[in-house]
Design brief:
about 600 residues; alpha+beta; Immunoglobulin-like; Neutral Protease, domain 2; five-stranded antiparallel sheet
Length: about 600
């Protein structure tokens, strides 16, 4: 047994460390600026990393009338007879140094009990007196969220559910989450924040990343959880919308904010707590759910948490465990989504339907590209949907490796369309959503920077719009002075009735991230090029541009199914294109029987 006596002024940076704030004092166990990030050392001697673990007894001596709050369970309080009281807290499960905690102040205790999967678990929420009446309203769904997490990831792994109100936060100290004052406001506007921190009790506290470079194992999974719990409390549609919004933000901004495209298991320590680890990590966790399917995914993750309980792990540990548990070689998935920068991009190249005696044979041809890095992954699994006459979806999966894939499916109906991942289960380098239309209207599709304006419609239309974060296929016949986008294009897919007419409004923007690699200066005249099928070349269609040379909208006069890409003509070489080659193209139906007429 070694005793270490120490004293001094605790350190803190702007966020992490040990803070004194008025009548309150508290620690936050990591620093965003400090490298290494672990800040257990700011208030006690320790081997301060993500792998050294210990149980803790913490004795907090305070003036009488104040409360000392630590991790674990309160063992006793002792009146020292000199105007001070010592609070003794004990956490029995071994945790890394950064997850131990202490907070001191004029706290009021809110108590409750959660009937857990294995045992009753005390709930302790320590707040300032002015916040005590607001706790019930802010944490009104805590029991439901706990039940949701236990149902999906196994029993709660600690002895107490705890939050303590602090001037800044939030921070997932084991059983004693530092939670910011402003978030205890009497309503559920910050529900996702305390849900994120609560999910860390499984992802981060029970099982911890072994290095900062693997922080997605903590923060990416907690980000996934803070979105996914909405499927239980609210709706699948709300979850899908929020995941789409976050995924769109990742594709647009993560590489800019974090200074590059990084593999999830190799993020530089100056961006440990950046958008890649949190938000992209969350989208990859969601993609893993689609890859394995819900039942196997949640079984496997529960087993992973049990296998590595109170240990630290790497992404390689997760890969190898999931391979062993599921019987599926997870090497391809982890190579494509975790160990390699950027994001894979999947697309349907073409579909061929052949009618047989008892079924329809559907030949599916797929393509893989990549956003942000030169790599093509193997063992891909993507979801496709066959659309029936009544517009019901029948889903299946396609497995392929490399740049192209071919799969044959036999179904008992003739599909009116075949859509790629319409339920947005895989967060590849696309943003897409679909909608049914039964009357003329204007509609802006969320996050795909496209608006449709339907003025003629004889029957129901199904339209899926995809904004692809990948280079469109190149011109088959190059034109001097004409350049197409290096990194994005739209695909309009679905089912159009016999009588249909609509305009499509496409957004361009060289001021921010969308088209700044395409539109260089005012000599670049932006146009939208179209093709009805990948076998055909891109060509100009009638359109009107509204805006200036670097930002605005292009209105395509006769919107059809197919692909659309931004392109620029260098006016110093070829001038502005005329409409003389414009033609109205109708590609219907999709998919085609044997051949396509246009």
């Amino acid at each position: 047994l070694v005793g270490v006596y120490y004293h001094g002024q605790p350190f803190h940076e702007d966020w992490g460390g040990f803070h004194f704030s008025g009548n309150y004092a508290f620690n936050l166990g990591v620093g965003f600026v400090s490298i290494p990030h672990n800040l257990g050392k700011t208030w006690f001697p320790c081997v301060d990393n993500f792998t050294d673990r210990s149980s803790y007894d913490v004795f907090i001596t305070v003036e009488n009338g104040k409360t000392g709050v630590g991790g674990g369970l309160l063992v006793e309080t002792t009146d020292n007879g000199n105007g001070t009281t010592t609070w003794h807290w004990k956490i029995s499960h071994p945790i890394p140094t950064y997850l131990e905690s202490a907070a001191v102040g004029d706290y009021v205790l809110y108590e409750d009990v959660y009937e857990g999967m294995e045992k009753d678990i005390p709930i302790n929420i320590y707040t300032r007196p002015s916040e005590s009446a607001k706790v019930a309203g802010s944490f009104v769904h805590l029991h439901e969220i706990m039940h949701f997490f236990e149902e999906h990831f196994g029993p709660y792994p600690f002895e107490r559910i705890g939050y303590v109100s602090t001037a800044i936060g939030a921070m997932e100290h084991a059983t004693n989450i530092a939670y910011p004052h402003f978030a205890i406001n009497g309503n559920t506007s910050y529900e996702s924040l305390y849900t994120h921190e609560l999910s860390h009790m499984w992802f981060g506290d029970e099982v911890t990343c072994s290095t900062a470079e693997d922080m997605w194992l903590n923060e990416g999974w907690a980000t996934f959880c803070e979105l996914y719990y909405r499927t239980g409390l609210y709706s699948e549609e709300l979850f899908r919308t929020m995941m789409r919004d976050m995924h769109n933000d990742v594709l647009k901004k993560a590489h800019i904010i974090d200074g590059g495209f990084w593999p999830l298991n190799g993020i530089p320590q100056d961006v440990t707590y950046g958008k890649t680890a949190y938000d992209k990590g969350g989208t990859v966790a969601n993609t893993l759910r689609a890859y394995l399917g819900d039942s196997l995914f949640f079984d496997a993750m529960t087993a992973y948490l049990d296998q590595f309980a109170y240990q630290s792990v790497s992404s390689y540990d997760m890969r190898d465990f999931l391979t062993s548990y599921t019987g599926i070689d997870m090497g391809g998935f982890f190579d494509n989504w975790v160990f390699t920068p950027g994001s894979p991009h999947f697309g349907i190249d073409s579909v061929l339907v052949t009618e047989g005696d008892a079924s329809f044979m559907v030949d599916l041809f797929l393509k893989q590209k990549r956003f942000g890095y030169d790599f093509l992954g193997d063992d891909n699994i993507v979801e496709i949907a066959f659309v029936k006459d009544n517009f019901d979806f029948v889903t299946d999966t396609v497995h392929f490796s490399g740049a192209t894939g071919h799969s044959v499916k036999f179904i008992d109906f003739e599909p009116r369309a075949v859509l790629l991942d319409p339920l947005e289960t895989t967060n590849d380098a696309t943003i897409d959503n679909y909608r049914f239309f039964d009357q003329p209207q204007d509609y802006a599709f969320p996050e795909v920077i496209f608006k449709i304006m339907i003025d003629e419609l004889s029957d129901t239309a199904l339209i899926q719009v995809t904004n692809n974060f990948a280079a469109p296929d190149t011109l088959k016949t190059p034109v001097e002075g004409l350049r197409i986008s290096p990194n994005r294009f739209w695909k309009i897919d679905g089912i159009l009735p016999e009588e249909f007419h609509a305009q499509g409004r496409f957004y361009y923007d060289a001021v921010t991230v969308w088209d700044n690699e395409l539109i260089i200066d005012e000599n670049d005249s932006l146009v939208i090029l179209y093709r009805d099928h990948p076998r055909n070349d891109w060509h100009y269609v009638p359109q009107t541009r509204i805006g200036n040379w670097n930002m605005g909208y292009v209105y395509v006069e006769d919107l059809q199914l197919g692909e659309y890409t931004p392109a620029v003509y260098d006016k110093t070489i070829v001038g502005v294109p005329e409409n003389t080659d414009a033609k109205k193209v109708k590609f219907y139906p999709n998919p085609a029987k044997k051949k396509t007429n246009h």
